[in-house]
Design a protein that fits this description.
The complex is a heterodimer of chains A (436) and B (481). Chain A has 436 residues and is α/β, with parallel strands linked by helices. Chain A is built from nine helices and 19 strands. The N terminus of chain A is likely disordered. Chain B folds into two domains: 69 residues, no CATH class; 328 residues, no CATH class. In chain B, strands 3-5-8-10-13-16-18-20 form an eight-stranded parallel beta sheet, with helices on one face. Classes of the chains: A alpha/beta (436), B alpha/beta (481).
Chain lengths: 436, 481
């Protein structure tokens, strides 16, 4: 990561803040990860991967690494649910799996949804096979930190030949009403052969104190399986979130992802899709609608390791106020991954003079018989289109919102669940009409 | 026309016979680099005190700097103490007949379509001068002088126009800009200086063919071009003919300075020794090139055709400071065998209504790695900035790599930025189409590649464009099939 000087004192402080917790499960991997974290430290702005996103600096400045408090006064999750979306709900409050608030509706013979800590005991073999296999623990400090100190998590396993219709909604609630919150959570999901799964993740926080949520996800999509993955980040103002997601695709599998970022102080998403089988298809879309001082950083990687696959990426962003949008999209096509088709597009609109966008689409190609392209744009609303709408009696604000809505809408394409789509559509439309 | 050119080339190539070059005694500095060497170089060139100070300052900066590790290129560590930093030009062995020249080289010349006389010149075979050399060269020099254009070697300019050098040296590329620029600033051997006065349109392409003191300016070359208000100049650097050079490390600096309404067009054709088929040897070309559009409505345009060098590391950039100023970058970079190229541009939009355009075409074959790395930065003040970038890569063979690293940083809401990149291979159907019509595979590849690079080649001055086309075909010879 290129950190020249690791702040030893800060490292100690961070490490000691986790002391006194019960870290059962994966003891060996925790020790190894701790070693990596101590070597890496928090990223500085010198490291290429975090050049525009001073998460390390922000954490050192605003976050006091006190002993973690997991207490919460939240009694009901009703306000955080998605209206109209029927799903099994898994709740993590301040980083801890809450079996009291979770409500699993699925048939246990088809799909297992449980706390990851419990899964280490009951599903030992399968957990050992997949846990920690694809995450960049040696090179990313947040992955190393999480792998060393994760408190709790979710385990999902879909049996072979099973089509799970209802989505699993994972609700992360961070209660910072009384104190700062430090959540270190994980997800391990396996979709076996010929099966399908839909996962929705929603991040919510309450209170005025800082929340640091460090999240690692590993999802394995086996032969001929399907995954729909949707993430909604609508945290309150003082939330710092880092998510590392690795989706591993086997042959003829299909993955659709959608990431919506609306709020939070600093959000960093590392989404990596490893295409490790032939004839795979993946679509990953994202939308970031930012205002105030929000910084949203989407780093995506598609790693084509095997031939004959297709990937398509579309991320769009609208920045207002002092907001900052960062996008980095890497497409790797490894040697011998012939006949790969990989497309990527990143489009941005800036609505104010103090909003900025830093985008870096990156292609790295080692195979010759491929079709790859990327495009990115940054611009503002079309004056003529605005004029057209206004000349028909539509107020300026509405006209603007309509145009922004039209710009943003096509990223919803990978969302197949109708009720979820309706919910997201409304969320985006409300945001554009009210807040910008 | 062509004949005239040849004649001119003959003559100017022999220039130092006529004593235009200072200090031809063949002496060398000892190996290594320290302050004494910097002083030695400066003393050898009879430089004024302020320039020596400037060199020393650069050297002290360089000592504190680290060699950049971020480019996507790999090479064994360079031992900077194992290099001779000053050696006066050596006289080449005079040959009497083309038969004595390496037949491989002659074959290359024939393919490039270089005339027999020019072949002799390039290989150092003695030729008879047809016209009185001095008079032609003088006419040419007189013509420029009449317009007030200063075009001379760097050392000459230090003596004759110290006020200009003092004012503009390091104004675009500061001495401590980067590792290689600092090294160059400390030990630069020579180079060219060009000043176009107000309102003057330079009547000819200034090229190395015509350049005074072109021979063996060495590995640390420095070029400074200043275009005063409303002036225009087109400058050509390099040569399509393969250049064999004993110096492995080349760290040149090029500075362009355009004032109000001025336009500078800078074209490069680089075909230095790329190393053999196994990747042994070859030149490391680490160049810092930057243009400053200082005045309003100024324009700087870079065109480059890069086919040589084992490693190319260069980013000709434009700083668009003046309002309505414009920057352009057209590039074709071809890598074959074990060559590595990390090249691209930076467009820094500072002024209002600034425009930039980037067209980069990378072609990789064999086991080579070709990277485009570029930045488009729109600063807060740069209202209505406009950029269009297109970076295409063509891959031939399954062992090469093409990489794109574009950075787009926008701080102003009125900016309109477009970036596009594609990677693909030569279509089998395209080749089939050609084969069907009796065009063999090699010719078909040349045809397709030239079509692919046309947009850039069109930017080159006429004579260069023709040779550059052949050069592309030649570089890629044997990479298909």
């Amino acid at each position: 990561m290129g950190n020249t000087a690791v702040d030893i004192d800060l490292n100690k402080e961070i490490v000691s803040s986790f002391s006194g917790q019960d870290f059962s499960g994966a003891i060996d991997s925790r020790e190894l990860a701790l070693m990596h974290f101590q070597k890496l430290g928090l990223p500085t702005n010198k490291s290429e991967e975090y050049r525009f996103t001073p998460i390390g600096k922000n954490l050192s400045k605003n976050f006091t690494w006190k002993t973690v408090s997991t207490e919460s006064t939240i009694g009901s999750i009703e306000p955080f649910l998605m209206e109209g979306v029927e799903a099994s709900v898994v709740v993590l409050v301040n980083g801890i799996y809450s079996s009291k608030l979770s409500h699993i509706k699925h048939d246990k013979n088809e799909i297992t949804v449980m706390s990851l800590t419990d899964a280490f005991k009951t599903h030992e073999a399968i957990v050992a096979q997949y846990f920690g296999k694809n995450l960049p623990t040696e090179s990313d400090s947040f992955v190393a930190m999480n792998s060393a100190f994760w408190q709790s998590g979710v385990f999902i396993h879909v049996k072979e030949n099973t089509n799970v219709e209802k989505p699993v909604l994972i609700l992360h609630v961070n209660d910072a009403q009384n104190a700062q919150v430090n959540s270190q959570t994980r997800l391990l999901a396996i979709v076996e052969k010929n099966s399908s799964l839909s996962v929705i993740e929603k991040f919510e926080s309450v209170g005025d104190n800082y929340v640091f949520h460090n999240f690692c996800e590993e999802i394995a999509v086996k032969e001929n399986a399907r995954l729909e993955y949707c993430k909604v980040q609508n945290d309150a103002g003082k939330s710092i979130q880092v998510a590392n997601t690795v989706i591993h695709q086997s042959a003829t599998s299909k993955v659709d992802t959608f990431t919506l970022t609306l709020d939070g102080e600093m959000v960093r998403n590392n989404l990596t899709i490893v295409i490790d089988g032939e004839n795979c298809e993946s679509h990953f879309h994202g939308l970031y609608l930012l205002k105030g001082n929000t910084l949203a950083d989407n780093h995506t990687v598609v790693d084509h390791k095997k031939p004959n696959s297709f990937s398509n990426e579309l991320y769009k962003g609208i920045m207002d106020g002092n907001a900052k949008g960062v996008f980095n999209g890497k497409i790797f096509v490894r040697p011998h991954a012939q006949k790969t088709n990989a497309f990527q597009s990143n489009r941005n609109i800036l609505l104010s003079d103090s909003a900025t966008v830093n985008t870096k689409p990156q292609l790295e190609i080692w195979a010759d018989d491929v079709k790859c392209s990327h495009g990115c744009t940054s611009g503002q609303l079309d004056e003529e289109a605005l004029f057209y709408l206004r000349s028909r009696g539509i107020p300026a604000d509405t006209a603007k919102a309509m145009l922004l809505y039209a710009f943003a809408l096509d990223v919803l394409a990978p969302v197949k669940n109708e009720s979820l789509k309706t919910y997201l559509d409304k969320l985006i439309s409300d945001r554009l009409h009210k807040n910008f | 026309m062509a004949k005239d050119n040849q004649v001119l080339e003959e003559i100017t190539s022999k220039e130092y016979e006529h004593g235009w070059t200072v200090n031809l005694e063949a002496d060398e500095a000892p190996k290594g680099l320290n302050e004494d060497i910097v002083r030695f170089i400066s003393a050898k060139k009879n430089e004024p005190e302020w320039l020596l100070e400037w060199r020393l300052k650069a050297f002290r900066h360089w000592q504190k700097m680290e060699e950049p590790k971020w480019p996507n290129v790999h090479y064994p560590a360079i031992n900077y103490q194992d290099i001779i930093y000053y050696s006066a030009p050596k006289k080449k062995k005079e040959l009497t007949d083309l038969n004595e020249v390496d037949p491989e080289l002659i074959k290359t010349f024939e393919k490039l379509g270089i005339s027999l006389t020019e072949q002799k010149r390039l290989t150092g075979v003695a030729v008879d001068a047809v016209i009185d050399s001095v008079s032609v060269a003088t006419t040419f020099k007189d013509k420029l002088a009449e317009l007030g254009i200063v075009f001379c070697s760097f050392s000459e300019a230090v003596k004759e126009h110290p006020e200009l050098i003092k004012k503009y040296l390091g104004s675009v590329v500061p001495m401590n800009d980067n590792y290689f620029a600092a090294l160059n600033s400390a030990v630069f051997s020579d180079g060219s200086f060009c000043y176009i006065p107000k309102g003057v349109r330079c009547p000819m392409e200034l090229s190395t063919y015509f350049r005074i003191n072109a021979a063996n300016t060495g590995q640390f070359e420095r070029t400074l071009i200043v275009a005063d208000e409303g002036s225009y100049v087109s400058y050509l650097e390099g040569c399509t003919a393969p250049m064999r050079d004993e110096n492995q490390l080349h760290a040149a600096v090029v500075e362009l300075y355009a004032m109000k309404d001025a336009e500078i067009k800078y074209s490069t054709v680089q075909n230095w020794y790329p190393g053999d088929k196994e990747g042994k040897g070859g030149i490391y070309n680490f160049v810092t090139k930057r243009g400053l559009c200082f005045g309003d409505h100024s324009k700087i345009s870079w065109t480059q055709v890069e086919t040589g060098s084992a490693i190319t590391w260069k980013y000709p950039s434009c700083v668009l400071k003046g309002d309505y100023s414009m920057g352009e970058f057209y590039s074709v970079a071809v890598t074959n065998n074990y060559q590595q190229a990390d090249t691209g541009t930076k467009m820094i939009h500072i002024g209002k209504n600034t425009k930039s355009r980037i067209v980069s075409k990378g072609i990789s074959a064999g086991k080579s790695q070709n990277s485009y790395r570029g930045q488009v930065h729109v600063m807060k003040r740069a209202t209505n900035a406009r950029n269009f970038s297109q970076c295409d890569s063509l891959l031939m063979g399954d062992q090469c790599g093409a990489h794109t690293f574009p950075y787009i940083d926008v701080e102003n809401q009125t900016a309109r930025i477009e970036h596009e990149a594609t990677t693909s291979k030569i279509g089998e159907d395209q080749i089939f189409y050609c084969l069907q019509r009796g065009i063999d595979e090699e010719a078909a590849v040349a045809l397709i590649v030239n079509g692919y690079a046309k947009e850039v080649l069109n930017q080159l001055p006429m004579e260069f464009a023709v040779e550059a086309q052949k050069l592309l075909a030649l570089t890629l010879e044997g990479s298909v099939g």
